[in-house]
Amino acid sequence: MSLKERLNEDMKQAMKDKETGKLRLSVIRMVRANIKNVEIDRKKELTEEEILDVLAKEVKMRRDSLEEFKKGNRPDMVETLENEIAILMDYLPRQMSEEEVRSVVAEAIAATGATSAKEMGKVMAVLMPKVKGRADGKLVNTIVKEMLNT
Questions:
Q1: Which residue intervals of the chain bear CATH 1.10.10.410?
Q2: Among residues 18, 99, 141, 150, which one has the fewest Cβ atoms lying within 10 Å of its Cβ?
Q3: What is the Cα–Cα distance from 84 to 95, expressed in whole angstroms?
Q4: What is the rounded CA–CA span in Å between residue 123 and residue 147?
Q5: What is the distance, to the nearest Å, from the Cα of residue 90 to the centroid of all Cα atoms in its chain?
Q6: Is 72 exposed, middle or buried (0-12, 13-18, 19+ CB in 10 A)?
Q7: Which of 39, 86, 98 is nearest to 62 (CA)?
């Protein structure tokens, strides 16, 4: 079953679940609308990988908002966003652990021969296709900086 089909089926199930599925339903509808908008903009149907990119962007936006709501002492919004992120994470591939990210970063640094933070771009170019959708970009960036500065 493709990701789009799975979103459709889950949306139908959330509608049947009435009250208990309201948040899930709204998140799925929002994601489907964003996918449709990207398809309209690009004038073509999205591939599975492109749909994963849209989902990852949705998660990233919510994580960024989450930080701001935590700073603003809004526990109600923090809880809602955490629930939305959990719903979206169901559709993304299993996320890499910090140890897995560190090992992939070490491989990329060895492959590029980078020795300083000035060469971070080369490392990221090799690294991002390997971790795309499977690791948080901020975490990857932090680990690369840390490993290049030591």
A1: 98-149
A2: 150
A3: 16
A4: 11
A5: 11
A6: exposed
A7: 86
Kindly indicate the confidence band of residue 130, based on its pLDDT and cuts at 50, 70 and 90.
Answer: confident
Please identify, in words, the CATH class of the domain defined by 3-89: mainly alpha
DSSP letters for the chain: --HHHHHHHHHHHHHHTGGGGHHHHHHHHHHHHHHHHHHHHHTSPPPHHHHHHHHHHHHHHHHHHHHHHHHTT-HHHHHHHHHHHHHHHTTSPPPPPHHHHHHHHHHHHHHHT--SGGGHHHHHHHHHHHHTTTS-HHHHHHHHHHHHH-
Q: Which fold has domain 98-149?
A: Arc Repressor Mutant, subunit A (1.10.10)
Distance, CA of 101 to CA of 109 (rounded, Å): 12
Q: Which two tokens stand for residue 34?
A: 């964003």
CA dist 25 and 16 (Å) reads 10
Task: Name the residue with higher pLDDT: 128 or 83.
Answer: 83
- Measure the CA–CA gap between 107 and 94, rounded to whole angstroms: 20
